């Protein structure tokens, strides 16, 4: 009787090994042998004459109710690359209705070197307002800048802090 049990156990063990071998034999493997190279940032913010490390520039604007205020030479977008880059500048958080107007003016100086030429103005009151070089505008040329100036006029009843966000996407 012990031989029968031992034979069944050996038979089950052999069957399990065969099933395991056949199952393992049907798998094929593919691998990815990859690498990543981290270079330097190609498009950077420049504020107060210095490049900003990372991807976020912080701008704080102080205005008075009902008084129009212009902020010039506030922020620059610099192409440090040797290639031109297409980009899109989009208002991703707008300021709302407590402003008569609130614009960011985008200038370039590579079409006519030495002269800042207005290429577009974004209404920061309008969500998703955007400027894009993908739609027929010239890309940001290698070693060139965009200058961003602001024009703000809050309503006479405006008070407190208002946040806005602008996103730059480039290739």
Salient structural properties:
171 residues; 3-stranded antiparallel β-sheet; mainly beta; 6-stranded antiparallel β-sheet; Immunoglobulin-like
Q: What number of structural domains do the residues give?
A: 1
Strand order, largest beta sheet: 2-1-3-8-5-6
**What is the helix/strand order?**
HEEEEEEEEE
β-strand amount: 35-45%
Give your account of this protein's structure.
This protein has 171 residues and is mainly β. 14% of the residues lie in helices and 36% in strands. The protein is built from 1 helix and 9 strands. The strands form 2 sheets. A 6-stranded antiparallel β-sheet has the order 2-1-3-8-5-6, with no helix packed on it. A 3-stranded antiparallel β-sheet has the order 7-4-9, with no helix packed on it. The longest helix is centred in the first third of the chain and has 24 residues, at 2-25. The mean pLDDT is 90.
List the topology elements:
Layout: H1 2-25, E1 43-47, E2 50-51, E3 69-79, E4 87-93, E5 99-108, E6 117-123, E7 130-132, E8 145-154, E9 165-170
Antiparallel strand pairs: 1-2, 1-3, 3-8, 4-7, 4-9, 5-6, 5-8
């Amino acid at each position: 009787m012990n031989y029968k049990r031992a034979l069944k156990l050996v038979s089950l063990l052999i069957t399990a090994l065969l099933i395991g071998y056949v199952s393992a034999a049907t798998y094929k493997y593919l691998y990815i042998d990859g690498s990543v190279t981290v270079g330097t940032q190609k498009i950077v913010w420049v504020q107060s004459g210095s490049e900003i490390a990372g991807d976020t520039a912080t701008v704080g604007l102080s205005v008075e109710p009902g008084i129009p205020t212009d902020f010039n030479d506030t922020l620059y977008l610099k192409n440090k690359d040797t290639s031109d880059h297409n980009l899109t500048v989009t208002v991703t958080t707008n300021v709302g209705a407590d402003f008569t107007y609130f614009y960011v003016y985008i200038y370039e100086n590579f079409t006519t070197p030495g002269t800042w030429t207005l290429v577009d103005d974004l209404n920061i009151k309008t969500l998703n307002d955007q400027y894009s070089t993908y739609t027929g505008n010239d890309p940001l040329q290698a070693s060139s800048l965009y200058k961003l100036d602001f024009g703000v006029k809050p309503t006479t009843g405006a008070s407190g802090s208002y946040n806005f966000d602008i996103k730059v996407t480039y290739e």
